[in-house]
Amino acid sequence: MKPSARLLALFGLTVASSALAQYGYTPPVAPTPPQPPTMPAAPAYPSYPSYPSTAPATPPAGMGVDTGYGYGTPSYGSPTYGSPTSGYAPQPMPGPAVAGFGATGDMLSYGYLEGFYQYTDFKDDLLEGASGVGLSLSAELFKPLFIKGGFNWGTAGGGTDEKDGYDFNSVSIGVGAYVPITQRFHLLFDVGGAYYKLDADKESVAFSDGAIYVHPAIRIAATESLELGAGLTFSSSDDYGTMLFDVGAYWKMFSALDLKLGADFGEEHSAYKAGLRLRW
Questions:
Q1: pLDDT in tens, 186-205
Q2: What is the Cα–Cα distance from 212 to 242, expressed in whole angstroms?
């Protein structure tokens, strides 16, 4: 390009710039692109305490781990089951003292059946001693009440002219209550009716008598295997005697079977007993 043409072009640009500045025209500016929206901050979750540093890195002995579900399963056959580290303490088995009266008081049961041999010695010189059997049954209704019944039979053949043969029978039934002062010591009281009959060769010594009786008594569990008892019977009978003192001892042979030895001492007779008692 020629120098004159360059000068003309430069002059034209200068004039154009002056004109634009004089009339306030400015070239447009490119628009600013919009800013993207600000995302909300993530919610803050509470932090949980970390596992104690003193905890063992591996499960305690005796505990299994189910990796499929993440639950620990106790190993019941492990010798450490029930240890302080396993978190389980087995319950103790109840001992004899937990159930009922315990090892000693279980002899003082009011549910029993007795069967015994009895030798009766009447104080009347015309009657010789009689051998026989007896039964006694007791059942607890509800604490502290019980019912009790008894039956005795004896016979004597009479061996001399002075003494005559006879048969003797007695039956009784009553209701009573007991008070356990301790597990080893009970007070009891029963009241009821009784019937006594003696059939003898001589009518002069025979009798038949019904009566009402009251019987206060005590029972003592002296040891785990020995029970002692005593009582007084007051009766309205005129022929069989109005008062009778009885004593007895029971020795535990098995868990519910006892050996019995006892004696009665009354105004008209004495009796000696030996037999067995079944408790429940």
A1: 999 999 999 999 988 777 78
A2: 10
